[in-house]
Amino acid sequence: MSASQIPHDTTLKLGGAFTIERAAELHALLLLELQQRAPEAVSLEGISEIDCSGLQLLLALRHQLPSVQLIAPSPAVEQMLARVWLTSLLDN
I want to staple 20 with a disulfide (CB 3.0 to 4.6 A). Which of 27, 48, 49, 53 is the partner? Predict the structure, then answer.
């Protein structure tokens, strides 16, 4: 199933700043969300800013749910992943 074919109700949409200032809050929110449902995909289009802490959250998410697709990266996410040579983290 391609990213464009994934039903929106099974997609977890992430947004805002994925930075050190919000890392603990985001970690708690992600854990709560993942306890309530198992998404088929995670949309990254709403992430406006990301630093190493935000990247660490995405890597932990990928480790915890390896079959979940990471789709629709925002420009900030694309730049960060390219900078650290982790564009393979995304599913096309």
Answer: 53
